[in-house]
Amino acid sequence: MGNVFVISGLVRKRGELAQRVCERETALHGAKRDLESVDRVLVLLGYRDDPKRIGAIRTPKRIFANKELSRLIIQMRRDKPELADNPAIAREIIVRKGWDTKDRALYNQIRNKVKDVTKRRAFWAGNGTVE
C-alpha cells in the first residue's frame, strides 16, 4: 500500500523527464536543419571543402557576471589590504566563491582574469595612457 505513493511520484517524474527529452529532441532537430542549411549555402557560395569537416566551436563559459570580478577585487583589497599580488587575489576569490581550491586550470584562469582587471584598473587610475 505504501508503494502507491512512491509509484505515483515516479510516474510523474518519468513524465516530466519524457517531456524534457521531447523538448531537447525538437531543439536538436531544429539545430540539425539549421546546420544543413548553412552547409548548402557554403557550397552554393563556392566553399570547396566538405562542410561536415568543420569542427564544433565551443563558446567560453562566463565565470563572473558583468563587473563582478572588479567588485570582488575592490572588496577584497578593502577587507584584506595584504592581498597585493594577483595570485593571492585569485586564491582568495576561489575560496570566497567556494570553488575547488586544488583545480589548477581554474586557478590559472582566474589569475589571468585578475591580472587583466588589475592592469585595466591601473591604466584608468593613471591618466589613461600607456608609457
Looking at this protein, list some descriptive labels.
0% strand; 131 residues; mainly alpha; flat
Layout of secondary structure:
Elements: H1 3-44, H2 68-79, H3 86-97, H4 104-125
Folded structure, characterized:
This protein is mainly α. It folds into two domains: 3-53; 68-125, no CATH class. Helices cover 67% and strands 0% of the residues. α3 crosses α4. It is flat, with a radius of gyration of 25 Å.
Can I get a quick summary?
By secondary structure, the protein is an all-alpha fold. The chain is built from 4 helices and no strands.
What is the average of the pLDDT values? 86
Which structural class best describes the helix and strand composition?
A: mainly alpha
- Per DSSP E runs of 2 or more residues, the count of β-strands stands at 0
For this entry, what is the oligomeric state of its chains?
single chain
Helix content: 55-70%
Low-confidence stretches: none
Cα Rg: 25 Å
Q: Helical segment tally?
A: 4
